[in-house]
Every structure is written in structure tokens, then in C-alpha cells.
């Protein structure tokens, strides 16, 4: 059968985008899935507790029928939802609709972080009822030196829009030891070094102004030259895993693409891996130019897995290491899937492709 528009709005891409929804299903392999949640939105992020009881979902809905706002972007609304009974019932939490949430990470059902545009970091200790903002480091903001942010907000529509209002962290990971590692590519030099990515560590007990205080703000733990950190992963040392605790960093090597330079977006930015054990980060590997990195995982017995894709044939690629990142094998997983996942500490890799959920064991 061929889908044919039956109403005028179906021929308007803005109308169809405005009707996109975010859905949440529960079920099992033996039973059909049941829809538990649906709200308007083109994007979303979520977190589920280990016992599958507490669920947070942040939805993002852009009104494609309206023009751009004062920051030069479309009008976007953000909402935060919570369930405490495995998705059977939901409650909308008090959350400013202008504040984007691109990532939710929790230590337990009550203590967690929300990360969004700006970049901005919030944390809650009471299950999302109240939030405290942790000020990001000054170098995380793309500053317009010609105009103050307040002045730009009141500017006329024909004046150059605010810069960097949707500047984002390039990576953030909340580890089981309670430390939130986050990274960004600095638009300004750091201690005389240009074109660097900075990696910071935020502990749960740290004050909210730890990175922005006037007197001795905490600096970055790691400085990576000419690379963008895509993902970070804390790996605890063990008898069968890497010796000693280590933070692994997945990167795109080279400077970010400059859209003002013709054809610069064609420049390859291959994936790279770094390891940090408390002092200077060590570069372990740069992969083939076609590799586009996505996420980094640790499996059973210290196995490391990079979820990636290939620009050469649009296939999904798994990069696997069994010696702490010193050497890697490349595994072609076939045409690009719509989604995938690997559970840290396990061996099973999941892919959603062609309306089917597929799995395989990583050995």
C-alpha cells in the first residue's frame, strides 16, 4: 500500500514535524509491547533506575510553524516527566520550558544531573522536585566580546543574534564513584594553548560555584590538543581488567569543521582513544579515516567496546579491545541501524534495524 495525504497539513513538512511524538513502551520478548507514555516532541532523553521502577523522560518540542526567536533559533519547549511505578503513571515535574535537557544521569532514584544547552548543568537531590545549577567553567561559553548577553537579548530582530546560546558539552558521563566527568572544545585559549578540549570532574559534594568562583576556581583534569572528546568512560581496575583505575576518552581527531571554509566538512576526523590515570592523558590509537565514533563501553573482564560507523559504506562498526586499549579489532556489523546499546559490564550488543531487535555476543 502507498501512503497518500488525505488532509492538507500532510503535504506541509512543518505541520508533520509539529506532530511528532515521543513514546515509551514496556514489555518482554514473550509478550507484546504496551505504550505507557506519549507526548509531543521531536527529541527526548531518559533515565531508568536499575529496578525499572523510577523513570525520567525529558522531551523537546520545536514549533516549526513559528519563526526564529531572539537567539536566532526556532521556538523550542522542554518538559520533564517522572514515573515511580515502571511507567504505569506519569507526573510532569516543575521545569522551565526554556531550559533544554540533552542528557539525564542519576546516581540513584533521587540524586542526579540534567545537562543542556548553554552549556548548563543542574543537579537534584530529591527526585527532581528541586534543582540547583552548577555553573559551568567560563571557557565552556562562546562569548561575544562585542555585546553583553543582556544587551543582545533586548536587541531588535535585525541585529546579529546571540552567539553560542546552544553551545553544548561534547561529552558527559556520571560514574558509579559519584563523579560527573564532562568535556567541551574550548572556543578560547587555555593557558596559552589554542584548539584544546578540556575535561572536568564534578563530585557530588562539590559546591555549585566550584568552576566559576572568583577565587581559585577548579580547573580541568585533562587537556587534549586538537581533538573533540565524544565520550568518556571510567574503568575500575581489577584482576582481569586494566591495572588501576583509568578514564578513557573517545575523540574525533583534528580541529572541528569550519563551515566558513569551503569543503572543510569533507575533511576526515578519524576516531581516537586516550587513557588518563591521574596525570597526563596518553594517546593510544587513531583509527582509519572513515571511522565516525559514537560511544564507548566497558564489558565483562575489562573488554572495551567502541560503537561507531563507517563513512565509506554507512555500516555500523564495533571496535573491540581486550588489553586496556592498546590494540583493537574491527568488526563490521552491517548496514547502519536506527539504534543500538551495549550494557556496561556485559557481553550483549543490541541493534534495532529493519523493524527488528537484534543481538549478538561480543567475545
UniProtKB/TrEMBL annotation:
Superkingdom assignment:
Bacteria
Task: State the residue spans of region: Disordered.
Answer: 323-343
Task: Give the matching InterPro entries.
Answer: WD40/YVTN_repeat-like_dom_sf
Q: Where is the composition biased (Basic and acidic residues)?
A: 323-333
Q: What is this protein called?
A: Glycosyl hydrolase
Q: Which organism is it from?
A: Cupriavidus malaysiensis
- Lineage from the top down? Bacteria, Pseudomonadati, Pseudomonadota, Betaproteobacteria, Burkholderiales
Amino acid at each position: 500500500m502507498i501512503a497518500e495525504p488525505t488532509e492538507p497539513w500532510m503535504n506541509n513538512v512543518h505541520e508533520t514535524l509539529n506532530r511528532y511524538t515521543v513514546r515509551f513502551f514496556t514489555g518482554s520478548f514473550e509478550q507484546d509491547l504496551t505504550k505507557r507514555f506519549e507526548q509531543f516532541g521531536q527529541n527526548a532523553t531518559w533515565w531508568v533506575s536499575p529496578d525499572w521502577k523510577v523513570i525520567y523522560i525529558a522531551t523537546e518540542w520545536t514549533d516549526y510553524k513559528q519563526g526564529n526567536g531572539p537567539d536566532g533559533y526556532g521556538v523550542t519547549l522542554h518538559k520533564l516527566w517522572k514515573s515511580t511505578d515502571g511507567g504505569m503513571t506519569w507526573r510532569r515535574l516543575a521545569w522551565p520550558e526554556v531550559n533544554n535537557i540533552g542528557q539525564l544521569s542519576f546516581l540513584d532514584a533521587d540524586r542526579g544531573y540534567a545537562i543542556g544547552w548553554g552549556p548548563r548543568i543542574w543537579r537534584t537531590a530529591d527526585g527532581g522536585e528541586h534543582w540547583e545549577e552548577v555553573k559551568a567553567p567560563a571557557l565552556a561559553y562562546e562569548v561575544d566580546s562585542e555585546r553583553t548577553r543582556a544587551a543582545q537579548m533586548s536587541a531588535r530582530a535585525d541585529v546579529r543574534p546571540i552567539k553560542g546560546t546552544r553551545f553544548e558539552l561534547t561529552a558527559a558521563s556520571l560514574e558509579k564513584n559519584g563523579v560527573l566527568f564532562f568535556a567541551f572544545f574550548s572556543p578560547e585559549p587555555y593557558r596559552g594553548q589554542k584548539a584544546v578540549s578540556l575535561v572536568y570532574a564534578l563530585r557530588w559534594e562539590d559546591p555549585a560555584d566550584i568552576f566559576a568562583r572568583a577565587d581559585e576556581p577548579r580547573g580541568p583534569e585533562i587537556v587534549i590538543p586538537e581533538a573533540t572528546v565524544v565520550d568518556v568512560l571510567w574503568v575500575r581496575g581489577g584482576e582481569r581488567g586494566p591495572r588501576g583505575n583509568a578514564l578513557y576518552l573517545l575523540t574525533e581527531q583534528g580541529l572541528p569543521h569550519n563551515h566558513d571554509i569551503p569543503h572543510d566538512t569533507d575533511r576526515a576526523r578519524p576516531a581516537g582513544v586516550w587513557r588518563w590515570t591521574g596525570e597526563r592523558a596518553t594517546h593510544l590509537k587513531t583509527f582509519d579515516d572513515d571511522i565516525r565514533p559514537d560511544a564507548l563501553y566497558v564489558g565483562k573482564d575489562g573488554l572495551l567496546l567502541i560503537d561507531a560507523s563507517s563513512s565509506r559504506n554507512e555500516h555500523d562498526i564495533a571496535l573491540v579491545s581486550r588489553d586496556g586499549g592498546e590494540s583493537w579489532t574491527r568488526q563490521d556489523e552491517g548496514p547502519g541501524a536506527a539504534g543500538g546499546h551495549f550494557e556496561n559490564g556485559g557481553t550483549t550488543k543490541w541493534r534495532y534495524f529493519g523493524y527488528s531487535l537484534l543481538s549478538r555476543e561480543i567475545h
